[in-house]
Write a structure and sequence with these properties.
- The protein has 159 residues and is an all-alpha fold.
- It has one domain.
- Helix 2 runs antiparallel to helix 6 and helix 4 packs antiparallel against helix 5.
């Protein structure tokens, strides 16, 4: 596995690009990963994957909820893919919980490897956002079904 310092350097570069060029959904997604990574590092036990990392599991569940909500509300495709990757990563904890004999390295990889493609997807989403802005002049961030809609359902008798 790659050193944690290399991951954080990668994360800082990705989050800087997203922070400068992305819209609200991209910035929220980057913040979820960045904060989740930092909190996961802070709550990691000294046992080095010998048992379920409960603190990291809770962080991953919170991140999963955040990404699913983002996927529902954002007018973007990338949060769906990031949510799917987060589900896979979170499932790694469940596997270790059910079978404690899972090899430490396999558990560590299942927990960490998904962050890289998640960052890639958010950076790609940011790049696509910039393309849509250049092409159309606007890029809607939130879906109309997310509760931010100005339209109201018709009132009165139906028929």
């Amino acid at each position: 596995m790659l050193p944690i310092e290399l991951y954080y350097a990668f994360a800082v570069v990705c989050s800087a690009y997203v922070g400068l060029k992305g819209a609200a959904p991209e910035r929220i997604g980057a913040a979820v990963i960045l904060v989740g990574s930092a909190v996961s590092t802070a709550v990691m036990s000294g046992l080095k994957y010998a048992s379920v990392e409960i603190g990291v599991f809770l962080v991953d569940v919170a991140a999963l909820i955040a990404f699913v909500v983002l996927a529902i509300r954002a007018e973007r495709l990338w949060p769906l893919w990031v949510s799917a990757l987060q589900i896979i990563g979170t499932a790694g904890h469940a596997v270790k919980l059910v079978d404690t004999e899972v090899i430490r390295t396999a558990y560590a990889i299942a927990m960490a490897v998904w962050s890289y493609p998640m960052w890639f997807l958010i950076v790609l989403g940011t790049w696509q956002h910039r393309r849509r802005l250049a092409k159309f002049g606007v890029d809607k961030s939130w879906s109309s079904s997310s509760g931010h809609s100005e339209t109201r359902p018709p009132t009165g008798p139906i028929g």
